[in-house]
Amino acid sequence: MNKYLISLDKDEQRRVLFFAQPDTADFSVFSAINTMQREWDELAQQFDLVQFEQRYGRKVTKGEIGCTLSHLAVYRLIVEDMAVAEDDYALVCEDDALFAPNFQQNLTALLSQPHTMPIVLIGQSKIAQFNDVELEINYPTTLSFLCHQAGGVAYAYPYKSYFAGTVGYLIKKSAARVFLKQLEQGKPFWLADDFWWFETQFGLPNQVVRPLMVIENPQLVSNLEAIRGAEANNLAKKLVKYPLKKMIAIQKNLGK
Length: 256
Hints:
Shape: globular
Radius of gyration: 18 Å
Largest sheet: 8 strands, mixed
Distance between the termini: 27 Å
Number of strands: 11
CATH architecture: Alpha-Beta Complex
Number of helices: 10
Order of helices and strands: EHEHHHEEHEEHEEEHHEEHH
């Protein structure tokens, strides 16, 4: 399968850390699109600033534009590769990706399953551990015995699609083609990890893997402790919502 690593040219140390991990030698590096020094007028020619604000209720950052454009550029590479079948997955990671133990073994097991999902989220950003309790509280899936097993991980629908980040995910060539079709209608205006939008507007549902196979490398996430603190402070509020989320997740998976 094709594996892509999105990385800014300047971030050499990130790539050193990434490729120091096992089973990374077959990744192709894609030079991420650096938008930080570009003028807004120039960016507006490639990205719909107005429609983004209408969708998210705030102004986009230059970094977010660069992220979306970079992932779309990788999708173009996937679609243009004649050796890749429409139903084949490609693995897309960012250079802060940290792989869980037995990553390749579980990836092989996952790919051997009869998947119909356009997108499978094997990683998540802004999370402290591969099997963090926040995963179940915030983004529950169905009951464990109803999940599909693949090696040491399980996969299922989350209770709803959410902003999981783009640190690591699988995408079919046919799904990448859908994104390029959207660009024929106009400039992109979405966040690269707006999986709810991709499901409801582009017709691209996703499943998630538990425990995670990829998280952001703690060595590269300076605000991880702040994230943990904020999550702990909101734990009681989240627990109140958990039973309803779990029920929705169970119903969603039973209905598929």
